[in-house]
């Protein structure tokens, strides 16, 4: 049982029979014992047991869960399964309701931190509301954030920039290009000045343009495949 170590006969049966044991323990929810404690007392016990963390997920690896550190067998035996599969998945008020049953079953000694309450067998009944679920409460903040995001005005998407136009250095006109009869064939990327320098044409590109003015109509525009005279 761990911390909830004073196991009554009902608790021992629940431990042996597993989930079926919850049915054995269920009638104890209507027990007539005067054992009870106020919410303030349970808060002090929880502060000592789990630093007041009602959603404690067994971070210490001791097999105990929730604010009041229920072992799984104690949670089932005291009827906790009707609220959640484990104490840390139940609300604070639901955990207190199950703790009240366990207090009637085992007395204050079920908690090592009973002294912090102080937890006794004859305190006032707590004012609690066992409706709702811890998982729903835990998701409330996320749901609110999602709703806020939905209500926020959508940012205007930036206009798409027009696609850059492809530049073709030697764009072919619609009309057929004069090919010429020279000995040098123009390649993609050639210029008159580059050809003149590479082949040592006296007079440079101007001379080359003059030699081929029947083929080249614009000194800045020559086409791959044209045949140029070099001299």
Explain the overall architecture.
The protein has about 230 residues and is mainly α. It is built from nine helices and four strands; from the N terminus they run αααββααααβααβ. Strands 1-2 form a two-stranded antiparallel sheet. The protein has a two-stranded antiparallel ribbon with strand order 3-4. A hairpin with a 4-residue loop joins β1 (about 65) and β2. The longest helix has 15 residues, at about 90-105. Keywords: Hydrolase, Signal. InterPro entries: Bact_Kbp (IPR052196), LysM (IPR018392), LysM_dom_sf (IPR036779), Lysozyme-like_dom_sf (IPR023346), RPF (IPR010618). Belongs to the transglycosylase family. Rpf subfamily. This is Transglycosylase family protein.
Compact overview of the structure:
With 231 residues, the protein is mainly alpha-helical.
Tell me the Rg in angstroms. 44 Å
Order of helices and strands: HHHEEHHHHEHHE
Proportion of helical residues: 25-40%
Beta-strand percentage range: under 5%
Number of helices: 9
Distance between the termini: 107 Å
Provide mean pLDDT, rounded. Answer: 74
How would you name the oligomeric state of the polypeptide chains in this document?
single chain
Q: By helix and strand content, what is the structural category?
A: mainly alpha
User: Quick one: biggest sheet?
Assistant: 2 strands, antiparallel
Strand order of the largest sheet: 1-2
Give the uncertain stretches in residue-range form. Answer: 5-33, 136-149, 166-171
How many individual β-strands? Answer: 4
Overall, the morphology is rod-shaped
């Amino acid at each position: 049982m761990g911390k909830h170590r004073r196991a009554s006969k009902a608790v021992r049966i629940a431990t042996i029979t597993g989930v079926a044991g919850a049915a054995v323990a269920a009638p104890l929810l209507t027990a007539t014992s005067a054992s009870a404690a106020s919410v303030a007392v349970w808060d002090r016990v929880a502060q000592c047991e789990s630093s007041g963390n009602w959603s404690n997920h067994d971070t210490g690896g001791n097999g105990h869960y929730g604010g009041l550190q229920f072992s799984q067998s104690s949670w089932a035996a005291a009827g906790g399964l009707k609220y959640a599969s484990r104490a840390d998945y139940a609300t604070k008020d639901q955990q207190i309701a199950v703790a009240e049953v366990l207090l009637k079953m085992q007395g204050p000694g079920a908690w090592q931190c009973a002294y912090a309450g102080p937890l006794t067998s004859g305190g006032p009944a707590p004012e609690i509301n066992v409706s709702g679920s811890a998982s729903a409460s835990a998701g409330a903040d996320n749901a609110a954030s999602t709703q806020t995001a939905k209500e926020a005005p959508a940012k205007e998407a930036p206009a798409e920039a027009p696609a850059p136009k492809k530049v073709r250095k030697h764009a072919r006109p619609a009309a057929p290009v004069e090919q010429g009869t020279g000995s040098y064939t123009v390649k993609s990327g050639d210029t008159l000045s580059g050809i003149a320098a590479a082949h040592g044409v006296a007079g440079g590109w101007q001379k080359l343009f003059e030699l081929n003015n029947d083929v080249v109509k614009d000194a800045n525009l020559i086409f791959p495949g044209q045949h140029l005279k070099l001299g």
